[in-house]
Amino acid sequence: MSEKLTLILGATPNRSKYAFIAADFLSKAQIPFIPIAIHEGELLGQKILDLNEKPFLEGIHTITVYLNKYHQKEWEEYLLSLKPKRIIFNPGAENRSFAEKAYQQGIEVLNACTLVMINTGQY
Known about the structure:
Number of helices: 5
Low-confidence stretches: none
Largest sheet: 6 strands, parallel
CATH class: Alpha Beta
Radius of gyration: 13 Å
CATH architecture: 3-Layer(aba) Sandwich
Shape: globular
Mean pLDDT: 96
CATH topology: Rossmann fold
CATH superfamily: NAD(P)-binding Rossmann-like Domain
Structural class: alpha/beta
């Protein structure tokens, strides 16, 4: 599973948030991840990258989204430029127009829960 480098969009050091829990699940499943958000912080020993800087990233397999659709709009083109193999829109992050753009570029799109996918071996 280690080849599924995952970008956690909306990462947070707040242990009560699902983005944090997803990072913990990914870590325990030995799936590498990169946290990114508009807020600074550290997540399980990793610096949260500044989304505003739109950092150059390669090898992203999955983007797991923890931002609601209204906060995704300004980042759509950047995220698509990373050429992920799949985008997971977690509950509350579903976005039909962004999903359609991704699908048209050959990206697998799922409205699913990363936590459930990892726990059930579907990740």
